[in-house]
Amino acid sequence: MCTLEKTGTNIFILTLTGADEHRLNPTLIDSILSALRQAKSQATKGSVLITTSRGKFFSNGFDLAWAQAASSKPKATERLHHMVELLKPVVAELISLPMPTIAAVNGHAAAAGLILALSHDYIHMKRDRGVLYMSEVDIGLTFPDYFTALFRAKVGSPSVLRDVLLRGAKVKGDEAARRGVVEAAHDNEERLSEATMRLGEQLASRKWLGEIYKEIRKSLYPELCGVLGLDHAIIAKL
User: Fold this and answer.
1) How far apart are CA 107 and CA 132, in angstroms?
2) Do the bridges between strand 2-6 and strand 11-16 make them parallel or antiparallel, or are there none, so unpaired?
3) Phi, psi at residue 56, to the nearest 5°?
4) For residue 85, what are the contacts with CB-CB under 8 A and spacing of at least 6?
5) Which burial class, exposed, middle or buried, applies to 179 when counting CB atoms under 10 A from its CB (0-12, 13-18, 19+)?
6) Number of domains within the chain
7) pLDDT string in tens for the chain (238-residue length)
8) Residue 126 lies in a domain
9) pTM above the 0.85 mark?
10) What's 96's domain CATH number?
11) 11 in any annotated domain
12) 26-42 and 73-95 helices cross at what angle (nearest 10)?
């Protein structure tokens, strides 16, 4: 599950709770989507969202154990496809959220967990135990269309795309920052939290109109928005 809190500086903190791997099953995905929609409904001028988690993992991807617990292999595959479809609106909600978004990756972000992180505008992570990893090539799964569209939208380096998607490279904090996948890597959880909160306060202080911010964001990623079914609106507030 997750919680959503709002600070006095207009920053929403979405926290994946518990000390487990934060595997993305229907229950957790629904909880995240509900929290994002709540933040959107309460957004005002200058709102910001920070997503973080408790424990060793940011998110270790889809709950494959839940899928494999089905009564047959076809039903297990059906469960996996169901989770893929459920996560798509979460990505769409983040891409169209009327506020800047920051992922504070305090542990491993693997597969769908990395997709969740990449759906934010900014990513900060820990250098000591944070790892970014797309496991699909290793475990025998192809990528949904919105996964690859998100990677193409957010990762500009062909060599990074190759290494992460085709080699299953496990990218630690310093390398992720050096290769432009994340903004910065931090020594410990306290410094990560301080850095993301500082960035959140800086962004909130700009008092941007959320509807303008979200439309500019969507205009940056036309292919991704097409896959997600997001329209782009032209707005002028003069």
Assistant:
1) 9
2) antiparallel
3) -75, -25
4) none
5) middle
6) 1
7) 999 999 988 999 999 998 789 999 999 999 999 999 999 999 999 999 999 999 889 999 999 999 999 989 999 999 999 999 999 999 999 999 999 999 999 999 999 999 999 999 999 999 877 899 999 999 999 999 999 999 999 999 999 999 999 999 999 999 999 999 999 999 999 999 999 999 999 999 999 999 999 999 999 999 999 999 999 888 877 6
8) yes
9) yes
10) 3.90.226.10
11) yes
12) 10
Q: Which amino acid, 188? A: N
**165 secondary structure, DSSP code:** I
Inter-helix orientation angle 73-95/145-154, to 10°: 40
How is residue 76 written in tokens? 């297990």
Separation in Å, CA 23 to CA 85, 104, 199, 225: 15, 17, 27, 25
Range of the domain at 136: 2-228
Q: Is 233 part of any domain?
A: no
Query: Residue 110 and residue 151: Cα distance in Å, rounded?
Result: 14
